[in-house]
Amino acid sequence: MNTSVSIDNPQPHRNPFVRNLMTFFLNRYALAIGMVFASDSILLGSWVAHIPHVKEKLHLSDAALGLVLFAMPVGLLIMNPLTGWVISRLGEAKACFWSAVGLSLAVLIPINAPSVPILALGLFLLGLNAALINVAMNTCATNLEREQNIVIMSSCHGMWSLGGLLGSAVAGVVISFHVSPSIHVAVMSGLILLLTFLLQPLLNQIPSSSRTETGEKTGSSFVRPNVDLFLMILIGLALAMGEGAAFDWSAVYLHETLGASSQIAALGFGSFSLMMTSFRFIGDAIIPKIGGKRWLQIGGLLSAAGLLLAIALPFPSTALIGFAVLGAGCSLGAPILYAASMRVPGIPPAAGLATFATFSFIGFLAGPPVIGFVAEGFGLYYGLGLVAIMLLISAGLAKIVKLF
Fold first, then answer.
1. pLDDT tens digit string along 141-180?
2. Among 101, 128, 126, which residue's Cα sits nearest to residue 113?
3. Which is more confident, 13 or 197?
4. How distant, in Å, are the alpha carbons of 65, 70, 81, 135, 238 from that of 120?
5. Distance, CA of 146 to CA of 207 (rounded, Å)
6. How crowded is the C-beta side of 37, counted as CA atoms within 13 Å?
7. DSSP 297-335
8. Rounded-to-integer distance, Cα 54 and Cα 60, Å
């Protein structure tokens, strides 16, 4: 592997936001990593849009669908503790390549599944590859930041959010033209496979943190969290619950609780995603200026304020504003914490990220069911209110967490 990376230096710009975007988009190595982020979310977004089609094709009830969809999180949770070990053997570039190939092929299984067991298998394989590419691409971004003394992590996560929006938008157009879901996913899979092969030569030139300077493997693997990493996990879990609240419950809250039309209700997650994507693309300028620790405090308060606004003023218009504020507050938590988890002293970078991702992912798994359980007994107002409290607690924890 070539252990040196030539630096692409864009002409400096006075505006820090424009300067950081230029640093990202005019740096071929940074953009290559960002395209890996986008590839991941494009494939996942393409699949998610066709879940109703698969549900109808296999004659699944709501309960049966919920049970089989759990196969993907199972794959994620099983692979996450192993990602550090895999990356230490392959290196980040090869791990990105093989997981992207695996993701592109695995997504073809659930969309064409003739039975529930095949559907579950496909989702399980999707989870395995999604977990590996998540750790590998974030570690690649950190390696490039260190090598070139630049800040790109937030922009990379912005590419992930943008890819998800793009994947969902294309799927929406495809569905409106009655194109076969199998054909749509096959085309997207082929395009991402082609992109993966084109990006690999650039990724191979980024130095790997999974080997020492002598080329010896570090043997990084899943580790027991220390105090600092544990606090990061708690903050990440709360922010993940905030994202889960928008993803799973914004449309339900707007439509069933506030009486908004289905079209208006769909804008709940749209406003959240748009604000999150926008903030992530300017985050590389915001984070160094404000500081990651300070932003985690501000973000926790903003996120909580957004949900409380949606609850306290129960009208569709104010709820949409509330979910947008929630998106702004949650936007930079992942870039900050992903990067920080790879800098914890005494813990290999890939192992720190794998450990953080494993535990914080519980927020995505546990958040929506917890909200549903509380809503069943007391109402959705209280379910969302519980998440707001969690976000307020995360803002308090951000005061004492150490970000290295």
1. 989 998 999 989 999 999 999 998 888 788 878 888 889 9
2. 126
3. 197
4. 10, 8, 21, 23, 28
5. 10
6. 26
7. HHHHHHHHHHHHHHHHS-SHHHHHHHHHHHHHHHHTHHH
8. 8
